[in-house]
Write a structure and sequence with these properties.
about 130 residues; about 65% helix
């Protein structure tokens, strides 16, 4: 079983190329730091890291889905902040710094939910190894 510190180091060492990958990595780092705080605060037991369901529930912090987590204000709440984190400079400019929706089917909070889901998948995979 990996420790929280090992998982954190592996996430921080991940190579990223795109703005999206960098944003997902940032979300994963934030999640793992929050998990670390919850462990040190006694809200989550370190030995439960290996339990996929318990770990995912802890990462969701009471939300039922990553969409609910995103819309509930547990991550970034401003469109501009989300766009800045997940877009390349040209995409960021094209969407007018988050003023325009990212596409016809999603709002920025939906895009953030996808990124959060990918970040949690990274953590869950690393915890399993």
């Amino acid at each position: 079983m990996k420790t929280i510190e090992e998982i954190k180091k592996e996430i921080e060492a991940r190579k990223t190329r795109s703005a999206w990958d960098k944003g997902v990595k940032n979300y994963a780092v934030e999640m793992i730091k929050e998990l670390e705080e919850n462990i040190s605060g006694g809200y989550f037991k370190a030995e439960n890291i290996a339990d996929r369901n318990a770990l995912k529930a802890q990462l969701l912090n009471g939300a039922k889905s990553w969409s609910e987590y995103s819309y509930g204000g547990s991550a970034l709440i401003y469109n501009g902040d989300i766009a800045e984190r997940l877009c390349s400079p040209s995409e960021y400019k094209k969407c007018r710094e988050g003023e325009r929706n990212p596409n016809n089917h999603e709002e920025w909070l939906d895009v953030q939910a996808r990124a959060l889901s990918q970040a949690s998948t990274i953590i869950l995979r690393l915890a399993k190894d």
